[in-house]
Description:
Number of helices: 12
Radius of gyration: 22 Å
Strand content: 25-35%
Distance between the termini: 35 Å
Strand order of the largest sheet: 14-13-10-11-12-15-19-17
Amino acid sequence: MPTDSISLPGTPTGTTPSPARTARAAVVAPYGTGRHYQAEFALRGWDCVAVTPTDEALPALFRGHLDPAGYHSVVLHQEDVGATVRALRELRVNAVVAGTEIGVPLAEQLAHHLGLPGNDPRTTGRRRDKGAMAASLTIAGIDAPRSLSTDRLQDALSWAHTLDTPDVVLKPGDSAGSDGVIFCSSPEEIRAAWTRLYEVPNAMGGSNDHLVIQERLQGSQYVVNSVSAPDLGGTPRHTVTEFWADRRTGDSHVYDRLDLLNRTRLIPRILAEYTVRCLDALGIVHGPAHTELMYVPRRGPVLIESGARPEGSYDPAAMREATGSDHIRDAVHAVVASAPAHLAPDRPRSCVSKVSLIAPHDGTLDENLLRTLLTLPTVRGYVGALVPGTAVQRTTDLLTSPGRLMLAAQDLRSIDQDYKAIRSIEAAGLYSGASS
């Protein structure tokens, strides 16, 4: 059985390899949604190895969150790729996947050195850095946000002055979850945002030694999930599995609600065509991708960002109950079958929404109101530490939301009623409970 013991650099902890040959996947940084890879691979007869930095090397967001239960073994990566490759080769790993955003670069390197399917590590920057993403699309002739990646405030100010709009976005190049995304409308606001972000470590462990400034896109926001695998001739094949209308609160980037769209409608078809072109430009050949887009009036879809990993912050079991599949299941299918995801048939419960909780202030979760929240008729599951007395902080982005609820029903009206009830429960004092 796997253990919590600490190993030497690049060596596995837990059990030794079984004499019987078992297909085995390495999950790099198995945090957040990525922790569900293990159970899904197990359903396909595979076992999993967890690959993770030590807690000291992890961003604070993920420290202490590795649950070794169910893993064949745990490999601690300590900045020596060669040692980690040797450990995985000894464990006879057949596939390498990234569990979360911080695992993408290492997963691509490991797959390459092991001779396993994966995206080219020489182009990892296109899939991690927001400025490089936009530049890659522009070079490929695909519409992208006007952008500048720089380590100089004066360059950012001069570039912003050349735009035909005062509205820009300043952000880290390599974070996620809207961490550090700041809207600016004047040179003074850009200076203030720069001071707040520059060389301040971000939530994904990046140093913010350069920042990305972009035009602020105005329109309707969407999320597109996909899974990719090459055909027999090596040509990438992309299957778009989910389309979500993404609603934020007011004039901010605080997540409010995501509504699953019928993929046969016109807007999803337009988004799919654009997304596939983006995936090619970003070098995504293998595995899942989670892409955020803005549909700009009189312009069409424009990329915000894309991550070469599964969607974060959702309940796979609830998603599978509602639709028959989810991003993790689709990604595992691509590994096991060496083919893109198959689209599950629509289920009778076809209306699905994900509602992010929004705390207007620091506080703790009230027991009675939390019970009412979690027993609403359309609530099928949730993510987050939704336990009475749990401390919460004021919500400023996805990473500071107390949790996210999955709602599903046969009609949208039922979901809308429970959505309003969720916001009413929050207003009634959900975050004003006494500490336990």
